[in-house]
Automatic annotation (TrEMBL), chain A:
<dbReference type="GO" id="GO:0000177">
    <property type="term" value="C:cytoplasmic exosome (RNase complex)"/>
</dbReference>
<dbReference type="GO" id="GO:0005730">
    <property type="term" value="C:nucleolus"/>
</dbReference>
<dbReference type="GO" id="GO:0016075">
    <property type="term" value="P:rRNA catabolic process"/>
</dbReference>
<dbReference type="GO" id="GO:0071051">
    <property type="term" value="P:poly(A)-dependent snoRNA 3'-end processing"/>
</dbReference>
<dbReference type="InterPro" id="IPR050080">
    <property type="entry name" value="RNase_PH"/>
</dbReference>
<dbReference type="GO" id="GO:0071028">
    <property type="term" value="P:nuclear mRNA surveillance"/>
</dbReference>
<keyword id="KW-0271">Exosome</keyword>
UniProtKB/TrEMBL annotation, chain B:
<dbReference type="InterPro" id="IPR050590">
    <property type="entry name" value="Exosome_comp_Rrp42_subfam"/>
</dbReference>
<dbReference type="InterPro" id="IPR036345">
    <property type="entry name" value="ExoRNase_PH_dom2_sf"/>
</dbReference>
<dbReference type="GO" id="GO:0071028">
    <property type="term" value="P:nuclear mRNA surveillance"/>
</dbReference>
<comment type="similarity">
    <text>Belongs to the RNase PH family.</text>
</comment>
<dbReference type="InterPro" id="IPR027408">
    <property type="entry name" value="PNPase/RNase_PH_dom_sf"/>
</dbReference>
<keyword id="KW-0698">rRNA processing</keyword>
<dbReference type="Pfam" id="PF03725">
    <property type="entry name" value="RNase_PH_C"/>
</dbReference>
TrEMBL record, chain C:
<keyword id="KW-0694">RNA-binding</keyword>
<dbReference type="InterPro" id="IPR036345">
    <property type="entry name" value="ExoRNase_PH_dom2_sf"/>
</dbReference>
<dbReference type="InterPro" id="IPR020568">
    <property type="entry name" value="Ribosomal_Su5_D2-typ_SF"/>
</dbReference>
<dbReference type="GO" id="GO:0003723">
    <property type="term" value="F:RNA binding"/>
</dbReference>
<dbReference type="GO" id="GO:0000177">
    <property type="term" value="C:cytoplasmic exosome (RNase complex)"/>
</dbReference>
<dbReference type="Pfam" id="PF01138">
    <property type="entry name" value="RNase_PH"/>
</dbReference>
<dbReference type="InterPro" id="IPR050080">
    <property type="entry name" value="RNase_PH"/>
</dbReference>
Amino acid sequence: MSKLKSSCKLGILSRPDGSVLFSQDETTVVAGVYGPVESKANKALVEKACVEAHFRPKSGLPGVKDRLNESIIRNVCEAAIATAMYPRTSVVVVIQEMQNNGQLISCALNAACLALLDSGIDMKCMFAAVTCFIHKDESLVFTPPINEDQVKAMFMFVFDSVEKSIIASHTDGSFSVEQYKDALSLCKEECANMFDFFKKSLTIK
Amino acid sequence: MSEQYKILHPVKYFRDHLAHKIRPDGREFGEYRPIVVNLGSISTADGSAIAKVGRTTVVCGIKAELCQPKAEAANEGFLIPNVELPPLCSSKFRPGPPTEQAQVATQLVADILKNSDCLDLKTLCIFPDKLAWCLYADLICLDLDGALIDACVVALMAALKSVTLPAVQYDPALDNKQVNVQERKALSVTNTPIATTFAMFDDKILIDPTVDEEDLSTSLVTIVVKEEELCFVHKPGGCVFTEEQLLKCVEESTKRATVIEEIIETAFKSL
Amino acid sequence: MPVDHKRINGPEISIPYQLFDKLNTKSLKTQFSEIVQPNGTRADGRTSTEHRKIFLKTGVVSQAKGSAYIELDQTKVIVSVFDPREIPNKTDYSSKGEIYCEFKFAPFSCHKRRLHQQDAEEQQFSAIMKQALESAVFRHEFPNFQVDIYAMVLHNDGAALSAAITAAGVALAHAGIPMYDLITSVTLAVQGNHLLVDPTLEEERLCQVPLFKEEENNHGIVVLSVLATHEQISQFYQSGYLSYACLSSGIEMLTNAAKDIVTLVKKCLVKHVIKSVRIVED
């Protein structure tokens, strides 16, 4: 089984507080983080920071599908950021899709994590997203097959760096409980590599 | 007195209940609310259903129209689901375009339809590349009291089962179509996905949460089951779940799915 | 159809299949004489002054302050009322509270599919609802505040507007908003010398245009909202052409019909009060 090839370039944008160009396999996104910034009066929360996520597709205006991605990104970031440290402020995460080869959401989430680390905002833990696919022949792989018709199901898991517990789970297609368990344990192993990669990228910087 | 206590200290109120192993509405942690399904009560729609999960009410009406198939899928029709959360259903919403919650619910319902593959879009094609059915499934929430996706999926599946389409004669040479409204045929729905939502609060897992429980909880999970298979496990972040907890939820939702499937079946038979 | 980025869009063009039905070649006139007998008996067996059976229920929306559901045979409308809140984007003082009404047809409620955005007809109906209800509420009791009323038609089989107004009156009372009087509303459809109380959608459609040219070409729809105790008219809406004599006899018919509905509204509200008293006693 091939390990995922990840690469990143931190701080590529000058305006945001944290930014990254992140690619995993053939999927590439740019992420920027602003925060903590003053939040709009109607969004400000008294006891914690408000996390906003914006997902921009490759072309055109964001649609309903991107709203779902935004909600996942926002909820995961909210779980990882120490929001109680920044009451009455906003943390804005912006993701721009560059190229999609199947694992867009996990790529966006990993980029968000790196951008948050780059911005230096306080976090409770890191998080890493891993996507894996089941082929029609029931084999479990990380890299998406060339032909889309070959995929039976897709799994995306997000783990935290402390206990390696599940922060988020998202699936596509139908599958058995056993397959779900297998995918979960496979992704759990892989997430350690992601965390190593995060640490290495930050030390180089 | 408890009403005031609930408003002033919502979290403590909730925690005190849970400490006594009971939920504010008197249910146990693993107990779900009663489900009611009614089919075909709206005759202007080609298929309709009303689903109540506890107090959460969703009405689904499906209207069929004729259209040309997409060029890249010439032998397929369309099924367009849209979830509407009008200001009528809760004080959280104001008039205007769909809120983020409505958009996310719309996409989740569309994903569930696609993943479960419950309706073969090829059966909606009348003549390849020329004529196909487009089913607009509009889901309107009339009362929002938690577990929106669960109610939406029940309403949508029940409504799909009740859809009847008229016979169409199509002459491709003249592009001439004639519809016989009297002669109607039901859709072939191959399986029934059922969604179950869980809320996590202080390491306790609550099945089928009410809106108050959802607001206070730190994490939500929606699991969709169809015929022994899973077709959607969605947890959009929030606090962490261990593997055992997640698998326990899967087990619970499989049990609940068989019960709900029977309810839909009974409602369908009494149509 | 314009592309809506906040919803899932279907194909650009889609046509209702009813258009390709084997053509109904009967003239409107014969269609009308088929559903209404010369003596005024209608297709569903009602006399011309008879209202359809009404089902009315309060407390259907748990999240709203007050709510009501009404059924006029097939016509189904649900209305909910929310707590007064500050009028958004208003800086100057207003001594009277405001009523905000939104009337909406569900996309699947009519023969033709309705779009999600409010169209001109729905906006007009919202304005009529607002006018009808304003005079029934103690608006001076909540200055600078507005009460939101939302009506959703789930199934339109005629007289949807008057059903919504009647239900809104019940929902307001259920919400505990101070009111002068109970409000009820009835629709009348006129064609020639036929006056039909509480028309179905089919009857409404056939009363849009004059069919009997030789007689007085009376035709149209009248919606009358009445405050019960003193028979005050709080709103009057008419479309089409009506002679004065026809109109006055029509209004008399409508006020009589409205009186019958008031007893039903009262019964429904009393039931709610008994229920809530019982809960307190327990």
